[in-house]
Amino acid sequence: xxxxxxxxxxxxxxxxxxxxxxxxxxxxxxxxxxxxxxxxxxxxxxxxxxxxxxxxxxxxxxxxxxxxxxxxxxxxxxxxxxxxxxxxx
Length: 89
Hints:
The protein is mainly α. It has one domain. The protein has five helices and no strands. The protein has helices at residues 2-12, 24-37, 41-48, 52-68, 77-88.
């Protein structure tokens, strides 16, 4: 997962703007914590020493990046139903 984020981070990285307080590993861990526990962004941000909005942006970027990658793509519902029908035969 970190390698996927590194590739995507290299593509989006610009030289202007403020640097992130958290490295990619910490951003990934924060996103996984959010997905697992569904705590508020405020409380997750407090754990990592960042603001609520920074936590939100980091989690949404990690989620969006991973969902777009083919390794994390879900099979279409139609294909799953077809596999199930073939299995029953």
